[in-house]
Amino acid sequence: MIAIWAVAVRFFRAVRHGFQEPAFRGLFYLVSLIVGSATVFYRAVEGWSWLDSFYFTVITLTTVGYGDLTPDRAASKLVTVMVILMGIGLLIALIERIAHYVVEDHETHQTKKAGES
Length: 117
Fold this sequence. Notes:
The protein is mainly α. It contains 4 helices and no strands. α2 (about 20-45) crosses α3 (about 50-60). It is elongated.
């Protein structure tokens, strides 16, 4: 349980650090825009619940794709293709930046510990 807490703390510390940079904020807002607008779209067009619409968007963007939900309408299938093509690259770039900040934070703390010894 402590390990999960430590990972969560490092993750949120990295995101907080990232928000200091305009490029990170831009990536974050673009990914949020894609997730939010796709969720609203699936809710309106497919008639899914908010949770199902959000769930489908996230599993599609992360390429998990369980197959338990599938769009029935042609417009939804086209939007899904657009979400995949635009979103995956942006999501990967955002995750890469977060990983960079986590490593940077870890190295900073290691350097501080070494200096205290």
